[in-house]
Specification:
alpha+beta, eight-stranded parallel sheet, six-stranded antiparallel sheet, 14 helices, about 20% helix, about 25% strand, globular
Length: about 750
């Protein structure tokens, strides 16, 4: 077996052994041609033929491939929820590669591979082709909407003589201007001097170190000067150089369609005005009910009705109010529509079930799901269930899942990919999680309805209040084809937007608020539910990265945002980290804790306050958590009112300080003050983000009201000053505007 996949797996940050790299090479450079072969292949060669467009004789080059180490789909993690049998099998196959000579423009390269087996037999691949491209001036390729800013002479297209592939251009960046936004960014808020891109990607943990994100947006604020911003109005991948290579120059490069055209929208004004102009284009948040501001509780080992209710009882016993419970491990881990242990008849045509179709054994994991939902509601707790937008195909499906897979193919509701014969076949997930799964095209209204109808009984009959819409990052590959005929390069980034929208529409059609809880998204996600920062370890670094993520997401128009308090993966946080994270979470829009599945090993890794208290032996965990969750309850009227202000004015609910004073972004004089933010109009929050710290410097921005009040001590501090604030473990630095009604919540 010899396998060559010209564009690879579609992993945006990794080159696979069996691909061509670069996929679109530039004239004058080379490209590497690679294959993956089984162990019986002892030699591999390639023939590369160049046919000039002008009809001149073709040139042929014979290449001998050399053995190389195999790589597939980037970093592969064995174990945990990223384990993949497919990845292990791929690494067992051998890699072979060769580099071409320097390539020429003005013609087509065709190549194929030949392998020699250990028994002397010959294997050949089909032929593949490409054209070398070159950057060339294209002054009309980018359309500016708004006050013109593109630097003259900077617009170029990467063109192969038949079609364009990319366009690049530059914008001016004045010496004091700073750049922020770009969706959810973990490493920092001020991105000036860095390079980054906008492509949806599942970065499992260490997002700040890796500088990759689930929720990118090709939008930014440029502050510190006249005040402006921009939106590269495309759903394809975009790269940004924010003065990293050339200070004073903001470089942008974007994939394009064959015509090489691109729209860029330029906005002038304050950060709020710039954000509002962007939201005019992509949509604003839909107001969610006030109950979303209460504590959300979750644990991946809460996988029975008895355990869920036990944990809710423990919240009551410890006097820690809870408003929502998210159950991840509720389903059969197959259909993700049926509760584990439920009995029912398979619908061979994939038709939806109703509650009456199920029986729930008394000794099963979920003996009475509706009764559980009713009891949770009686106690004032909302119920959310976990989802994944895939039809799981490993291990080989059976029962209802097999019927659903057949029905999905028959109904033509799946994303597709090219097959070796030039046709199309269902796309098989190339990511690490649920490898080879089928993927419904939730960007298509008919396909989305087919998918969500199978979940309708959960909402209308069980009483589910929301869905955790996890895993929206599985569409890899520019060559994928969606049901509207568009390709993956244009559509993949839009999938998580449509995913949350589809579940929101299901909830709304049943008379419920569209409460979804997603980690992935793109421009347009602002209108669809709530978000959390994704998977992360319980470390101080991760805590800081999460705060950056929330502030950058908010500056890009995400209103309802939270993170897994003190992290969800690995060993539990120590008491100090847990307390400091719990305190900070009171002052972000969504307050929720969660923990990863640990196979029910002991000691428990649940992130419940009582488990952390028991594991660390520190009783302050329970005392401080109780006090701060009760404070959160008193802040609900303020949070709800300020959310409505945000929706009416575009001033972020979780608000970076540069919205109040643009010059504060990246001001060297403020180095050392650390991360802080406004929560609505009247609260300023300065969390403790370092172990052992019992004080910190806090910048109090200039305020129309003049003074700020320390909510714990009542001390009055003038706006526009920086002060050192004491912060013992039981206290987080928080200030309110003098005279603000919210001060009563702290009394």
């Amino acid at each position: 077996m010899i396998r060559h996949r010209p564009a690879g797996s579609g992993h945006p940050y990794s080159v696979d052994t069996e691909q061509r790299w670069p996929v679109i090479p530039e004239a004058g450079s080379t490209t590497v041609l690679g294959v993956r072969a089984d162990a019986r292949i002892t030699a591999v060669a390639a023939v590369l033929v160049f046919a000039p467009d002008d009809g001149a004789p073709a040139d042929q080059v014979d290449l001998t491939l050399q053995r190389v180490a195999s790589t597939s789909r980037g970093r592969v993690t064995d174990g945990g929820h990223l384990a993949s049998a497919a990845s292990r099998l791929a690494r067992a196959a051998g890699g072979w590669q060769a580099e071409t000579p320097a390539l020429r423009a003005g013609g087509t390269y065709t190549y194929r591979f030949t392998g020699v087996r250990d028994d002397g037999r010959i294997e050949r691949t089909r032929s593949f082709s490409f054209r070398a491209a070159a950057w060339m001036p294209a002054p009309d390729a980018v359309s500016e909407h708004g006050a013109p800013r593109i630097l003259p002479g900077s617009v170029e297209q990467l063109h192969d003589g038949r079609r364009a592939w990319r366009v690049r251009f530059a914008l001016p960046l004045a010496p004091r201007e700073r750049v922020a936004g770009f969706g959810e960014r973990y490493d920092r808020l001020d991105q000036t001097g860095t390079e980054l891109d906008a492509v949806v990607f599942e970065q499992y943990k260490s997002q700040g170190a890796e500088r990759k994100t689930y929720l990118p947006m090709p939008f930014a604020h440029v502050v510190g000067g006249a005040g402006w911003g921009f939106h590269v109005d495309t759903t394809r991948r975009v790269w940004f150089d924010l003065g990293a290579r050339r200070p004073g120059r903001l470089g942008i490069e974007a994939e394009t369609g064959p015509d090489g055209r691109l729209d860029v929208r330029l906005f002038d004004g304050t950060p709020t005005e710039v954000l509002g102009a962007f939201l005019d284009r992509v949509g604003r948040a839909t107001e969610l009910p006030d109950w979303v501001f209460r504590l959300w509780a979750s644990g991946n080992e809460w996988n029975t009705q008895a355990e869920v209710m036990r944990q809710i009882d423990l919240h009551a016993a410890h006097d820690i109010p809870v408003g929502s419970v998210v159950i991840e491990a509720w389903s059969d881990e197959s259909t993700f529509t049926a509760f584990r242990d439920a009995r029912y008849e398979v619908t061979e045509d994939g038709a939806p079930h109703r509650l009456a179709d199920f029986t729930f054994p008394a000794d099963g994991a979920w003996p009475d799901p509706k009764g559980m939902a009713d009891e949770l509601h009686r106690r004032g707790v909302k119920l959310h269930l976990w989802q994944i937008p895939l039809l799981k195909m490993r291990p080989h499906p059976s029962g209802q899942l097999a019927a659903d897979a057949r029905a999905a193919v028959a109904a033509d509701v799946l994303i597709r990919e090219p097959d070796p014969r030039g046709g199309l076949r269902p796309y098989r997930n190339r990511g690490w999680w649920f490898p080879l799964a089928l993927m419904p095209d939730l960007t298509d209204a008919r396909a989305a309805a087919w998918w969500t109808e199978k979940r309708r009984y959960l909402v209308e009959e069980i009483g589910v209040d929301g869905f955790k819409t996890d895993g929206g990052e599985h569409a890899w590959g520019a060559e994928l084809e969606y049901l509207d005929g568009r390709r993956g390069d244009e559509k993949n980034n839009t999938f998580p937007v449509a995913y949350a929208a589809a579940y929101g529409e299901l909830l709304a059609s049943a008379g419920k608020a569209p409460v979804t809880f997603s980690r992935a998204g793109f421009a347009g996600s602002q209108a669809h539910g709530a978000f959390w920062a994704g998977d992360e370890n319980s470390t101080w670094d991760a805590f800081r990265w999460s705060m950056n993520a929330g502030l950058s997401a908010a500056s890009s128009g995400i209103v309802y945002w939270g993170w897994d308090i003190a992290g969800f993966s690995g060993e539990i946080p120590d008491a100090e980290l847990y307390i400091r994270a719990m305190q900070a979470s009171v002052f972000v829009p969504i307050m929720q804790y969660h923990s990863e599945f640990n196979h029910h090993r002991t000691p428990s890794r649940d992130r419940t306050p009582w488990n952390i208290a028991e594991r660390t032996g520190d009783d302050r965990v329970l005392e401080v958590t109780r006090r701060f969750v009760q404070l959160r309850e008193r802040l609900l009227p303020y949070l709800a009112a300020q959310a409505r202000v945000t929706l009416a004015t575009d001033r972020p609910l979780l608000r970076p300080l540069f919205f109040a004073q643009p010059e504060l972004l990246g001001d060297p004089a403020l180095e050392g003050t650390g991360i802080e933010w406004m929560l609505g109009d009247d609260l300023l929050v300065a969390p403790i983000l370092e172990p052992g710290a019992t004080s910190r410097r806090v910048l109090l921005p200039a305020s129309d009201a003049g003074d700020w009040v320390d909510v714990w001590t009542g001390a009055i501090v003038a706006g526009g000053t920086t002060v050192t604030v004491e912060a013992p473990l039981e206290r987080i630095p928080v200030f309110a505007r003098a005279g603000a009604a919210v001060l009563r919540a702290f009394a």
